[in-house]
Amino acid sequence: MRISRRLAIGAAAFALVLSACGSGGGSKPTVKIGSDGFYEAKLMAEIYGQALEAKGYTVDRTGIGVGARKVSAPALESGQFDLKPEYIGSGLAFYEPPAASPAPSAGATPQIDRGDPAAVAAELQSVLSGKGGGITVLSYSPAADQNAFVTTKAFADAKSLKTMSDLGKLAGQFKLGVATDCPTNPVCGKALKDAYGIDIASATLLAACDTPMVQAIKAGTVDVGELCSTQPDILVNGWVVLEDDKHTQPADNIAPLVRNDLLTKLGSDKDAFEKILNDVSAAMDTAALTDLGKQVSVDNKDLAAVAKAWLQSKGLVS
């Protein structure tokens, strides 16, 4: 409770504070939101932030776009921010890399099905319960965005490419672009090497789900580039997504991660706070996420305006 701190302000000021807080019975804590650096993660962070603001929360956006997961995950654990949208499969792989072999030894604990979002979310929750004083995985969204390797139709036709296995047979015959965190991301660099024999040592490192990778593919700086499966540029340019035929990529539905110390501060408001975020997640699907991404990254619309329009269309803000 924060009553004793408020009393120090003085009776008159305390009355003003209460009147400004509405029916919540006390002031709501500021929520510090962070995200990975690419546009879609920043968009989801903004959507969650505006939904909270509509319910009376103050939102600190300093951490939005802070960087790749190797930066954003420790920032959440350390309390640099309280909340971040996460792609649950990639988030789990960051903490708990998939085994090199899909077949566990006799008597070993079976590997979870990383293509099952419910199993992935449960395992991620188990891992995060012990991180940074405890982090809660809220409900995951129907919206999912997988890592995808993309090339132009002309290059795919010239090299007879349909699958990542096809690409793996072209060692030294193509220029590859990968995410900046690919060398340390087990579902990127390690997965490409283990499953397809693709070595990323000489690959160009770029922001994977953002303009730099798109421009590199267009210019031919890279022949194959890592994008996100919801990337609108794939459809706009008629590009080819190479099939991940060995199923290296996990279910990447989006879920908010929230520090437990923030949830504790909320007290009796905790359930209502979680409902705000869960309602947003439930309303988002992959098609909508792709369309919103197009508005931001292709049509160059203001990200905050795109977020607000979508929230209004779903009746989540007025």
Number of helices: 15
Percent strand: 5-15%
> Order of helices and strands, N to C?
HHEHEHEHHEEHHEHEHEHEEHHHH
* CATH architecture title of the largest domain: 3-Layer(aba) Sandwich
Under CATH, the topology of the largest domain can be stated as D-Maltodextrin-Binding Protein, domain 2
- What distance separates the N and C termini? 31 Å
Helix content: 40-55%
Instruction: State the secondary-structure class.
Output: alpha/beta
Low-confidence stretches: 1-25, 101-109
**Largest sheet at a glance?**
5 strands, mixed
Total count of domains: 2
Mean pLDDT: 88
* Structure summary, number of beta strands: 10
* The CATH fourth-level homologous superfamily of the largest domain: Periplasmic binding protein-like II
Shape: globular
Strand order of the largest sheet: 7-6-8-5-9
The value of Rg in angstroms is: 22 Å
CATH class of the largest domain reads Alpha Beta
Description:
Mean pLDDT is 88; it is low at 1-25 and 101-109. The protein has 318 residues and is of the alpha/beta class. The longest helix has 15 residues, at 39-53. Helix 3 (39-53) packs across helix 15. Helices cover 45% and strands 13% of the residues. The chain has 15 helices and ten strands. It is globular, with a radius of gyration of 22 Å. The protein has two domains: 3-144 and 251-313, 3-Layer(aba) Sandwich (D-Maltodextrin-Binding Protein, domain 2), CATH 3.40.190; 147-241, 3-Layer(aba) Sandwich (D-Maltodextrin-Binding Protein, domain 2), CATH 3.40.190. The two termini are 31 Å apart. Helix 3 (39-53) links the parallel strand 1 and strand 2. The strands form three sheets. It has a five-stranded mixed sheet with strand order 7-6-8-5-9. A three-stranded antiparallel sheet has the order 3-10-4, with helices on both faces. A two-stranded parallel ribbon has the order 1-2.
